[in-house]
Design a protein that fits this description.
Blueprint: H1 2-22, H2 29-38, H3 44-70, H4 76-118
Length: 125
């Protein structure tokens, strides 16, 4: 079961990441969703790093759902709706966690900047 998961994960990641790179896709919908939902500030450096992370997350979601569906002994008519529900739940929960992490990192950077601006040198007399 683990080997099936790893094989699917690696294949999906390589396809997703290298297709983005090959066609030089700069805009990815997942990052735009995170910016809008969590009110993040857009940064080119974060966008480039998010391409890799979004590819990893997409591969994780697809491989989890497909591995789970492969090992269920149900009819095909029951597997498809279950796969769809699992896919939607995992997308919203995993990208919600990633967006919360990005927001906390941006808020952490803001508070560090603000605290360093508030420090002033005192002169000795």
């Amino acid at each position: 079961m683990i080997t099936v998961f790893l094989v699917i994960y690696i294949i999906i990641f390589l396809l997703d990441y290298f297709l983005l790179k090959k066609f030089k896709i700069l805009m990815i919908n997942e990052y735009d969703y995170l910016i809008a939902r969590f009110k993040l500030k857009e940064n080119e450096k974060d966008r480039k790093k998010s391409k890799i992370i979004c590819s990893l997350l997409n591969a994780l979601i697809i491989s989890l759902v497909s591995t789970f569906i492969i090992y269920i002994k149900w009819s095909l008519y029951l597997k498809f709706p279950l796969a769809f529900v699992l896919l939607v739940i995992l997308i919203y929960s995993i990208y919600g966690l990633y967006g919360a992490i990005l927001r906390s990192k941006q808020n952490g950077k803001k508070s560090k900047r603000n605290s360093s601006k508030g420090k002033t040198k005192t002169s000795k007399k």
